[in-house]
Design a protein that fits this description.
Blueprint (H helix, E strand, L loop, with lengths): L8 E4 L17 E4 L6 H8 L4 E4 L12 H9 L3 E5 L2 H9 L5 E3 H9 L24 H13 L5 H13 L7 H10 L4 H10 L5 H12 L9
Parallel strand pairs: 1-2, 1-3, 3-4, 4-5
């Protein structure tokens, strides 16, 4: 078996990377791939010697999702695989007992709670830079909980908004619709206007990726 390459990280990422500025020198450490589709991981591990993969974003509905079998294939061939933020967090929660490594708040939420894939799903542009066109429910939940804590929104109204959003197609979970529902629930106009500025606090998918890139946990894995 080939030794694992210590520094290079193959990262499958799309909308979660938007807004993150990669530091100078990252070009020597990251090989950036588009959001993973079914078969992408299998092709990579078939054509390359064992290395390291970070699975962040992946397709959900537009194309078949990255499969458990190809992740198992990669692990058996000596690859180290991290999962975080979105599709990666889901797969890591499902496969951490088989050797896939999870990272971050989203991974922990999926590992410890019965969450649906729908929580992290969003609509985004099909081509680079994969700008998000809707918001994931997991971020909206955190915002709603904060508004309830601040007594800007009642628990009953907050739950009604979440249920309303959960029943709709994920591509329609936009900030425009969210602001409309908050207004209907009696939230003041100036408070709704503040949401655009405060929403980044609840974007834990992005926070997990920033932490992952900053801490570089893949570098702590010894060569085999």
């Amino acid at each position: 078996m080939f030794p694992i390459q210590n520094k290079l990280l193959h990262i499958f990422v799309g909308p979660t990377l938007v807004g993150i500025t990669l530091k100078e020198g990252w070009d020597d450490q990251l090989i950036v791939h588009a959001p993973a589709r079914r078969g992408d991981v299998a092709r990579l591990v078939r054509d390359e010697p064992p290395g390291k993969i970070a699975l962040v974003d992946g397709t959900f509905h537009s194309y078949p999702a990255v499969g458990h079998a190809e992740i198992m294939l990669a692990l058996k061939r000596g690859w180290s695989i991290w999962g975080l933020s979105s599709m990666g967090a889901i797969r890591a929660a499902e496969m951490h007992t088989y050797g896939m490594r999870g990272f971050g708040q989203v991974f922990i939420s999926y590992r410890d709670h019965d969450l649906s894939d729908d929580e992290v799903t969003l609509l985004h542009q099909e081509e680079f830079p994969y700008i998000s066109l809707s918001q994931p429910l997991i971020h909206i939940r955190l915002l709603i909980h904060d508004l309830i804590h601040l007594k800007i929104l009642s628990p009953k109204s907050g739950e009604e908004i979440i249920m309303r959003l959960k029943k709709m197609w994920f591509g329609e979970r936009t900030m425009t619709n969210l602001r409309e529902y908050l207004a209907e629930a009696g939230v003041k106009e100036e408070q709704i206007a503040d949401i655009n500025h405060m929403f980044s606090r609840f974007e834990i998918k992005t926070h997990d990726l920033i932490d992952f890139l900053s801490l570089k946990p893949w570098l702590s894995i010894a060569s085999s």
